[in-house]
Amino acid sequence: MTEKKPRTFDSAASARVDRIYQNPDVVAQRVFVRDRLALRPGDAVIDVGAGPGLLALEMASEVGPNGRVIALDPSADMRGIAEQRCQNTSWVTVTDGDATALPVEDATLDAVVATQVFEYVPDMALALKECLRVLKPGGRLLALDTDWDSAVVNTADRKRMALILEAWRPHFFHSDLPGRLPSLIRDGGFTLQFTGGTPVVNTSMDKDTYAGDVIYTIAKYAERKSEIAPEICAAWLKEMTDLDAAGQFFFSITRFLFLAIKPT
Ligand SMILES: C[S@@+](CC[C@H](N)C(=O)[O-])C[C@H]1O[C@@H](n2cnc3c(N)ncnc32)[C@H](O)[C@@H]1O
């Protein structure tokens, strides 16, 4: 299913992403991404939708001062956070831009990375065309996206759970992109080299868990932006916090990773 509304990251959303992307679940996800990408000293890489610049800074230490990291994001608030984070790393450039119009010369980069970004990009065919254009032959594209069809959440009320998760989907432009990405990537002229997944699994809603943030965010989103009655949203959130208090909370979501090569 494809939703219609594009997503912007304002100051509050940017601060939230900056905070939760430093929790252990998302730190582990970046390790998974960097292991697969295997950057080398001197590589030139663009982080498309770099957000708060956490991955950009980690990649900068891998490519070193002879390499180059372009941290691109259309959100001024995200760029502000990334600029501050990367201010002492001169080979990181934080820049305004969109996935569908990369401000980069043809065939100049060793790698393009987009983690949890393509799910917000309406024209994926154009975004992939841009990725292919800026990569050197043999260069690597790494995309990581969440599929909300992979959500597993403990509940005694599956019907209400389905209603709330459905209400959350319009937060994304594509809430189920991973299932279509392999063919989009191949149709875009790439050779798909690796497909894998990394689940976030939380058995509590502690502050340092992904669920400890996303459950509240979903409840707020459903209440504000869907037609579900506020009492139903509140009852769902109460079920989640009650399960947590009783030691019965379970939440899991899978992020899918695609590594593709530009043919030589
Ligand atoms: C969930 S955040 C992920 C940030 C970062 N990639 C990470 O994994 O830490 C999504 C980011 O995608 C950016 N974004 C949304 N639409 C975009 C587009 N069309 N082109 C490039 N970036 C976009 C947002 O501004 C936001 O910073």
Shape: globular
* CATH class label of one domain: Alpha Beta
Fraction of residues in helices? 25-40%
Q: Do you know the CATH topology of one domain?
A: Rossmann fold
CATH architecture of one domain: 3-Layer(aba) Sandwich
Q: What molecules are bound to this protein?
A: S-adenosylmethionine
Beta content comes to: 15-25%
Q: Give helix and strand order, one letter per element, not per position.
A: HHEHEHEEHEHHEHHE
Describe the structure.
Helix 1 (11-20) packs across helix 4, helix 6 (158-168) packs across helix 8 and helix 8 packs antiparallel against helix 9. This protein is an alpha/beta fold. The chain has 9 helices and 7 strands; from the N terminus they run ααβαβαββαβααβααβ. Helices cover 39% and strands 24% of the residues. The protein has a 7-stranded mixed sheet. It has a domain at 11-146 and 173-200 and 254-261: Vaccinia Virus protein VP39 (Rossmann fold). The protein has helices at 11-20, 24-37, 54-63, 76-85, 124-134, 158-168, 181-187, 211-225, 230-245, and strands at 44-48, 68-72, 92-95, 109-115, 135-153, 191-202, 251-261. It binds S-adenosylmethionine (SAM). Residues 9, 17, 21, 48-51, 54-55, 73-75, 78, 98-99, 115-117, 120-121 line the site of S-adenosylmethionine.
